[in-house]
């Protein structure tokens, strides 16, 4: 019984650690790149088209880290997750990505 409880505690700790590190601002490795085809600034949303031709609507809010101003035709990089049936962005970067200075 003690082994089962200890194993469960370790699994929960590892899962929490994994979630904490995926949300760090410096990690943009899993960002999606797309082209903005339509912007609704009042509705805080944009329609984007990825290189494989898929279109989707991305929403942002006051907690989204928004870098730049979304404009039609611009390249955008973002991280988003489904929330209440919408693809909600946690991070958006408009324009070309610059390599990090070392």
- The tally of helices reads 1
Shape: globular
Secondary structure category: alpha/beta
For the record, what is the CATH homologous superfamily label of the domain at 32-94?
A: Copper binding periplasmic protein CusF
C-alpha Rg (nearest Å): 17 Å
> How many beta-strand elements?
6
Q: What share of residues is helical? A: 10-25%
How does this model look, in words?
About 17% of the residues have low confidence. The longest helix has 21 residues. The chain is globular. By secondary structure, it is of the alpha/beta class. The N and C termini lie far apart (49 Å). It has a 5-stranded mixed barrel with strand order 1-2-3-6-5.
Summarize the structure.
This protein has a domain at 32-94: OB fold (Dihydrolipoamide Acetyltransferase, E2P) (Beta Barrel), CATH 2.40.50.320.
Topology record:
Blueprint: H1 2-22, E1 32-40, E2 45-49, E3 55-59, E4 65-67, E5 75-83, E6 86-94
Q: Which key features would you list for this structure?
A:
102 residues, alpha/beta, OB fold (Dihydrolipoamide Acetyltransferase, E2P), 5-stranded mixed beta barrel, globular
């Amino acid at each position: 019984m003690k082994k089962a409880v200890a194993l469960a505690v370790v699994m929960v700790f590892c899962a929490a650690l994994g979630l904490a590190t995926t949300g760090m601002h410096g990690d943009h490795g899993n960002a999606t790149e797309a082209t903005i085809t339509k912007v609704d600034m009042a509705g805080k949303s944009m329609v984007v088209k990825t290189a494989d031709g898929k279109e989707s609507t991305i929403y942002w809010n006051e907690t989204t880290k928004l870098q730049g101003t979304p404009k039609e035709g611009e390249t955008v990089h973002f991280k988003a997750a489904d929330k209440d049936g919408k693809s909600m962005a946690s991070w958006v970067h408009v324009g070309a990505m610059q390599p990090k200075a070392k």
